[in-house]
């Protein structure tokens, strides 16, 4: 239950006229008596069970993973974990083993597919091998944005976190550039070198197991991107255009789910810091070759500057 409540906090509920608790439809909560078993599932008297995910959203950080998992949840046969589980990338979690991982999964009906998202998986080099070891046939979703935009967004998040904690922060120019050159030691920059990380995944999974979602398109026009995701996951076509509506005040799409309207939390639409045009230009240039390498790896191009 705590997981569900935490998940709800991530949303600004937009429709005060509608009772705003999705779980309220299901009647009084049944007693929670189940505990993980070691056979890969945990069943509950109400007919639901916890299962290891058949789908994982692996990243990228600031790519739009929250939007993607919420949109995927529009589908009735998808059960999504509310929290980022960090099982395969955090040693302290990984050491607890698969029973612990299973215990983090949502209760789902047997015909549903379970999905979790942890954006840090994509850029963590030990993760592909570990996921492959759990399930070599798993379906992976990777949502990417223009790598320069992603760096700025990454910086912005860290910046706001530090601001809130009254900690010192470095201006963006001084982390991006060192001695007049792009600072390769800046981690956020590395996370945007998509081909470096993709090579690592392709050592364990065929390209056909990894669907790349265009995060810029998902924000601009979510419906067509979600149709592609449905097709990749071989889900019955269910998500439709009326599940999305544009909020002019916010400047992005919100979701309509069984008459209930919800938008992503405001922090998802935060403005980026101003960056000197010359530095921005340098960044775009810097990513030109890495992007080309990524396009070659995945056999398709993206509309990145
Ligand atoms: C079934 O039980 C689980 C565990 O208590 C609960 O989380 C879930 O919401 C229940 N689902 C339904 C449809 O009642
Ligand atoms: C797993 O074990 C539970 C409890 O022993 C049982 O109810 C369930 O049917 C088992 N599931 C499978 C898939 O074997
Ligand atoms: C970028 O990240 C990858 C994967 O974690 C690592 O192998 C590589 O050394 C990093 N590159 C730089 C320049 O830090
Ligand atoms: C779209 O999906 C909703 C349920 O999510 C359904 O009520 C509606 O009839 C569908 N609209 C179309 C045009 O298929
Ligand atoms: C649109 O966004 C504004 C600003 O966040 C919000 O106040 C309003 O309730 C939203 N409207 C709808 C229909 O989602």
Automatic annotation (TrEMBL):
The active site is at 62 (for sulfotransferase activity). Residues 20-48 are annotated as: Disordered. Residues 34-43 have a biased composition (Low complexity). It is found in: Golgi apparatus lumen. The keyword Disulfide bond applies. 3'-phosphoadenylyl sulfate binds at residues 62-66, 145, 153, 253, 268-272. Belongs to the sulfotransferase 1 family. It comes from Cottoperca gobio. Disulfide bonds join 254-263. It holds the Pfam family Sulfotransfer_1. One of its GO terms (cellular component) is Golgi lumen. One of its GO terms (molecular function) is [heparan sulfate]-glucosamine 3-sulfotransferase activity. This is Sulfotransferase. SUPFAM superfamilies: P-loop containing nucleoside triphosphate hydrolases (SSF52540). Transmembrane segments: none annotated. One of its GO terms (biological process) is glycosaminoglycan biosynthetic process. Keywords: Disulfide bond, Glycoprotein, Golgi apparatus, Signal, Transferase. Its EC number is 2.8.2.-. Residues 1-20 form the signal peptide. The keyword Magnesium does not apply. InterPro entries: NST/OST, P-loop_NTPase, Sulfotransferase_dom. Residues 53-291 form the Sulfotransferase domain. Sulfotransferase that utilizes 3'-phospho-5'-adenylyl sulfate (PAPS) to catalyze the transfer of a sulfo group to position 3 of glucosamine residues in heparan. Catalyzes the rate limiting step in the biosynthesis of heparan sulfate (HSact). This modification is a crucial step in the biosynthesis of anticoagulant heparan sulfate as it completes the structure of the antithrombin pentasaccharide binding site. It catalyses: alpha-D-glucosaminyl-[heparan sulfate](n) + 3'-phosphoadenylyl sulfate = 3-sulfo-alpha-D-glucosaminyl-[heparan sulfate](n) + adenosine 3',5'-bisphosphate + H(+).
């Amino acid at each position: 239950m705590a997981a569900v409540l935490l998940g709800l906090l991530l949303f600004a509920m937009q429709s005060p006229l509608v009772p705003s608790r999705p779980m309220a439809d299901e009647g009084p909560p049944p007693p929670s008596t189940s505990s993980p078993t070691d056979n890969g599932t945990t069943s509950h008297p109400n007919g639901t069970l916890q299962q290891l995910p058949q789908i994982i959203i692996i990243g990228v950080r600031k790519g739009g993973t929250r939007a993607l998992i919420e949109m995927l949840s529009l589908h009735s046969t998808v059960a999504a974990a509310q929290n980022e589980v960090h099982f395969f990338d955090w040693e302290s979690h990984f050491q607890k083993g698969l029973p612990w991982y299973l215990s983090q999964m949502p209760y789902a009906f047997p015909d549903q597919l379970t999905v979790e998202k942890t954006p840090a998986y994509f850029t963590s080099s030990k993760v592909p091998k570990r996921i492959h070891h759990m399930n070599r046939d798993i379906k992976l979703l990777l949502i990417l944005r223009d790598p320069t935009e992603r760096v700025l967004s990454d910086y912005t998040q860290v910046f706001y976190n530090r601001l809130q904690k009254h900690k010192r922060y470095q201006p963006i120019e001084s982390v991006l550039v060192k001695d007049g050159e792009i600072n390769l030691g800046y981690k956020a920059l590395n996370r945007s070198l998509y081909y470096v990380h993709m090579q690592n995944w392709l050592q364990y999974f065929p390209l056909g197991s990894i669907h790349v979602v265009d995060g810029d398109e998902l924000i601009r026009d979510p419906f067509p991107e979600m149709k592609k995701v449905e097709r990749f996951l071989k889900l019955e076509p269910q998500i439709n255009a009326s599940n999305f509506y544009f909020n002019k005040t916010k400047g992005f799409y919100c979701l309509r789910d069984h008459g209930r309207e919800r938008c992503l939390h405001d922090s998802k639409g935060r403005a980026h810091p101003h960056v000197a045009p010359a530095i921005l230009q340098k960044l775009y240039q810097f990513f030109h070759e890495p992007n080309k390498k990524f396009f070659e790896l995945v056999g398709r191009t993206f509309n990145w500057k």
